[in-house]
Amino acid sequence: MGRTDLSVTIARPVEDVFAVLTDPTLSPRWSANAIEGELITPGPPGIGSRRRALTKGPFGGTMENVMEVTELEPNRKVALQLIRATWGGTGRTWYTFTPVEGGTRVDWTWEMEPAGLWKPLGSRPFMALFGRLLQRDLDNLKVMMESGQL
After folding, report:
1. In this structure, what are the phi and psi dihedrals at residue 94, rounded to the nearest 5 degrees?
2. Which candidate, 4, 44, 9, 6, places its Cα nearest to that of 24?
């Protein structure tokens, strides 16, 4: 299984950053490949909640995935397990939120095993590519949150 570790410091309070990153409907605003995000279980996010995402895929197509919240510590950590994905991979991700002087440090980790079209790449090269894309998204999140767009 491949892994990528990312981080960014955002000049906003932990509560604000946590709120944005736990709201799947906001993902298309800050993530370049996100098309649509939604919470598919009733109520606020909690352990066992599921979220669905539609993202841009290769060659102009789309991909869909469903993830389930496995850990939730308000303003500290959220972890999700991949339940199903059109690309057939397995994986999990988690964010940790740390108050720092002048804002919030977000550490974002993904562990994934690619399948389908992506399997021939292997998990390490796949995660290297995936990590670069996700770091761009985090950098965009920082700009949007610090400028008040989110």
Report:
1. -155, 150
2. 44
Mean pLDDT of all residues belonging to the chain? 90
pTM, 2 dp = 0.90
Q: For residue 47, count CB atoms less than 10 angstroms from its CB and return exposed for 0-12, middle for 13-18, buried for 19 or more.
A: exposed
pLDDT at position 101 is 97
* Rounded (5°) CA angle 9-137-127: 105
Report the C-alpha gap between 10 and 62 in whole angstroms. 30
Position 37 scores a pLDDT of: 97
Both structure tokens of 143: 């700009």
| Measured distance CA(147)–CA(94) in Å, rounded | 25
The amino acid at 15: E
Interatomic CA distance for residues 74 and 84, integer angstroms: 25
Contact 136, 144 (CB under 8 A): no
Q: Alpha-carbon Rg of the chain, whole angstroms?
A: 15
Q: Can you say whether residue 97 is alpha, beta or left, with left for phi > 0 and alpha for psi between -120 and 50 degrees? A: beta
